Amino acid sequence: MLKETLIDLISPKQNSTIMIYDVHASESGALAILDDLYNQIRAYEDKTVKWVFIVSVPEYEETENIIVRRFPWVKKSWGHRYVFDSVTTRGLINEYKPDKVFSLQNKGIPFYKKEQLVYLHLPFILTDHKFDIKVDGKKLWLYQNVVSKSIFSSLRKVDKTIVQTQWMKDALIEKAKVKAENIVIQQPDISSNNILEFEDVPENRKRFFYPATAFTYKNHMTLLKALDYAQNNGLKDYELILTIEKEENDYTKSLADFAEQHNLNVKFGGKIPREDVFKMYAKSVLVFPSYVESFGLPLLEARMTGTYVIASDCPFSVEILKGYEKSKFFGETEYKELAEKIFEIQ
Questions:
Q1: pLDDT tens digits, residue range 177-188?
Q2: pTM confidence score
Q3: Gap between the Cα atoms of 269 and 258, Å rounded
């Protein structure tokens, strides 16, 4: 895997203007990547390079060579986004005349004719898992079956596409017909400052932690079914901690109902601060049943902590956990197999 920072990949030249284009990022991993890039640019020594951030929600500080243009109205609807992409963006290109554009929102700007780089972090369009519009919702189905076509077309035209894993590069070559030499792999950079060491005591092997958002592909239900099966076969004194809330949406309500009906010891704790996530790795087993991820950051973080990891047997998880002796895999919907892996570490 390449070790360069995002700035290294951008390769700015003296006295050039670089546009950072990302009105999509407003939370979670996408925003973390944009935040990291902004901090890299703040620390970048060559102040002759002008950086123009085109964002929606983030409130970054401007400096002598960093311009920040915020467009929070983009988030109001698909219609607002269409106007921004087709009209506002054209005006911004004409205003700043960038020498290079780095888009962190999965596709390039079609009418920009100079060098473009794109950061792709949408696994939905590359996975072999077929989304069901009734089960997974309209958004995921549309991304996989409709939006993917325009993204693939765009990536065939830009100069460089950045992905986080080898499986995404392989899928881009196969599904989108993007040339291999135009794809760069850059694994997320994790500071070791927050990493704690897993304390291997019996009670920590019975505490299970799953930091994930409330989407169907995160596959919480398989985990709950596995715990129900394990509980019926002798598992006692366990605890599962989730970072979702009971009332977030219909999906979380169904999970909470299942946990209550089967008397499962599940804590729906909601989002927790990042430093608390690392504390949890040090005193729990990471169970990661998600079957669609661009990277799966908790897998790497837990590995660095030294805890046990039970993950779905998918390209991203196998790649990240390769050679890690404390990892176990199960078929993504095989809850009995997951229960067996839980028993193996008791």
A1: 999 999 999 987
A2: 0.84
A3: 16
